Amino acid sequence: MKWNIVPLETRMVQEFSERFKLDVLASQLFLRRGIDKPEEMQFFLEDDIRYSHSAFLFTDMEDVVERIHQAIDEKEKIMVFGDRDVDGMTSLALMAGYLRECGADVQWQLPMEDAPYGLSMEVVQAFAANEGTLIITVDCGITNIAEIAAAADGGIDTIVIDHHNTMDVLPDAVGIINPKVPGEAYPFDGISAAALCAKVVWALRFSGTSMYNQEFCLVHVKPGNQSIFFEAVVMKNFVSQRRLAETVSPETASAIEQRIVPFIQGLPLFVFDWNTQKALFSSLFGSADVLVHDLSTELYKRYPVFDGKSLIRIMAKSKSARYSTSNLEEMDGLIQVFKLIYGTALEAIEKPFKASLSLVALSLVADMMPMIDENRILMREGLRSLSDVHEFSPGLHSLLVELELARKPIKARDIGWKISPVLNSAGRMGKPDVALRLLLSRDPSESNALVKELVEMNSERKRLGEAAWKRMYPGLRDNMASHSGRFICVCDETIPRGITGILAGRLSREFNVPAAVMAKVGAVFVGSIRTVRGMKATVFLSNYADLLEDFGGHDAAGGFYVASENVQAFIKRLSESSSNIELSDIEESALHVDIELPAAQLAEDVWKMSDLFLPSGQKFGPAVFCIRGLKVRSANLIGKEGKHLSLECEGGGKVWPAVFWDGAIAFTAAFQAGDVVDVVCELEMNQFRNDIRPQIVVKDLRKSL
Ligand SMILES: [Mn+2]
Q: Among 81, 86, 628, 654, who pairs with 366 as Cys (CB 3.0-4.6 Å)?
């Protein structure tokens, strides 16, 4: 297998490591992955949720907050409508849980049994008949154009909180919170629906503080060459709303009356160091007889280390300079100081927000969201909250107890392999409400009963999945061949609807081509599609829109409905058009290496350093090391058929345990005990009984030259 090690200039690595105060080894990873913009780096280096994006960057956030408040205050009937998977149910738990806490008249629903994905006409009509007036769709809704129009006709307002790809038309909702809406100002579109719900709930809590919807004007004036430079920014809900910059000289003095005064009029003014600003204000406005708030006084009081320092000096010391490409101006510093001081008003709402991230962490892993940008911060805080979940969620706590994860450090892979399959099994077996009730439960004995039910459903789901897999397996090679070797499509009336997604995922992984699995539900076929190698699920499905009742999803995963009378035509066209499917090359032959080091440098610290890269996930895979010059002390075949290798490797004056899955073939053919080798590997902490030990997980190995 080829090892792909991008060459790096030593000077570049050194500069990068100095700028971000990072280990030289860690710097290699970022540079080799092309992650070098300061704005990206903050999400790897910072843990604080203040580095996540503000909820109020969403265009409709204020409208959504206002409408929900109105519904709570006027005791309107509210329905939260979600989805049957982990993201859908955690979204529901967050929204409905908060509304319940506020004493709202809230009910929740999600698609039960074989009900289709998303809002249905039946649900809307029943809610209208029941005098409901507000529907909040979570993890669905963005494509429910007709249903939301019908709701409006029935006197029901709808709020859509969704992260699925949009269609050409948007629903006629009172507010849409979806980062994928074209033109949406929110800067990151890779977050889960539950993360969106946590942000909406945060915004609702924030709206209870005195800061909500207040405009604050930050002003900075500095002398120029025969002129005065004036700059002001209006902040609302901690987001910059508008900015004014004027250079005022005797010739352009009209700017004061025409633009500056109207801009700041009526707003509370904030400056830094009024003593020096005062004179400049006087020369601009003829007097300094205005009421201003001096941020420096408050800052020096709270942070004596800054005492007497200018804005520029403070910024140079702060981290913000490290994470910005552009040269920071005083105004950027002023905004930072303002956020720092008034951000403490947010402390009361920080605690419940952090707790809510326990559910967000589940959703991010289950929905396979990219582990980049703010997801890294939400995820790390969410994993911490999961360890403390006994303090605020008896339901989730019971589940963690059952899975032997309670009060332990939880990793992303615990969610992926243990927690999320159990919660998902409820939806797959047609009873997603069991999992949702668990997430919302406040009663330990009820929780325990629900966990028991979930565990049983999970075993049943596994059994059905295995049985279906065995049945379809013999035909799969031919199936793939009939799709030009680029696709697999299974349509089987005996497959339970709930496991089509799991099966499609397993097919696409095992055969490395996109796969669709369809099951029959009444008069329609319900399908799940999972793609690999760059094919985009929703774009692909749109080629068959004329044969589909409905479809939607993300780039990597989607769902669709086909009427029974169209199913044969659909299958036929899939096979006929399969040669047009474009897939990226299979890069099995090259191993991408992030960090290269000599065996002599191997130490526990290297494992500790690689914590920085956790959690890994989509778009940010685990760190891959190339360690040169390890001495193999021993090698033993392990596993039932002796396919794997357990090794002891010596480097840096210590002996390290290593495991090489499927490594038996390489053994004796390529190396023997006693050889000095180079390995490409991941470095893991392995739990062994009560010990956590470093372990090398070998991906490839060859004798050192
Ligand atoms: Mn989702």
A: 86
pLDDT for 586: 65
Transcribe 322-358 into DSSP letters: TT-SSPPPHHHHHHHHHHHHHGGGGHHHHHHHHHHHH
What's the 3-state SS for 640-674?
Answer: CCCCEEEEEEEECCEEEEEEECCCCCCECCCECCC
- Percent of the chain's residues with pLDDT above 70: 99
Separation in Å, CA 297 to CA 135, 284, 306, 435: 47, 23, 11, 52
At residue 468, the 3 state secondary structure works out as helix
Q: Which of 260, 217, 219 is nearest to 236 (CA)?
A: 217
Residues sharing a CB contact under 8 Å with residue 452, sequence separation 6 or more, in sequence order: none
> Which residues have CB less than 5 Å away from ligand 1 (the ion)?
87, 139, 193, 367
End-to-end CA distance of the chain: 16
CA–CA dist 594, 373 (Å, integer): 19
Average pLDDT over residues 570-598: 89
**Beta-carbon count within 10 A of 144 CB:** 28
Please, where are the H alpha helices in 74-164? 86-101, 121-129, 145-153
Q: What is the pLDDT of residues 211-227, one digit of tens each?
A: 999 999 999 999 988 89
- What is the DSSP annotation of 278-298? HHHHHHHHS---S-EEEHHHH
For 635, counting Cβ atoms within 10 Å of its Cβ (0-12 exposed, 13-18 middle, 19+ buried), the class is buried
Q: How far apart are CA 324 and CA 334, in angstroms?
A: 15
- Is the separation of the CB atoms in 585 and 575 below 8 Å? no
How many angstroms is it from 193 CA to the middle of ligand 1? Answer: 5
Read off the pTM. Answer: 0.91
User: What are the pLDDT digits (tens) for 46-72?
Assistant: 888 988 999 999 999 999 999 999 999
Residue with tokens 């789901």: 461
Scanning 343-406, the segments in alpha helix (DSSP H) are: 347-366, 374-387, 394-402
CA nearest neighbour of 160 among 147, 142, 146, 145: 142
* Residues 232-248: tens digit of each pLDDT: 999 999 999 999 999 99
Separation of alpha carbons 453 and 196, rounded Å: 29
What is the CA(89)–ligand 1 centre distance, in A? 9
The pLDDT tens digits for 93-147 are 999 999 999 999 999 999 998 888 999 999 999 999 999 999 999 999 999 999 9
Question: What pLDDT score was predicted for residue 555?
Answer: 87
How far apart (Å, rounded) are the C-alpha atoms in residues 694 and 684?
Answer: 6
Question: Residue 137 Cα, ligand 1 centroid: separation in angstroms?
Answer: 12
Distance 77 CA to ligand 1 centre (A): 25
- Confidence category of residue 688, pLDDT binned at 50, 70, 90: confident
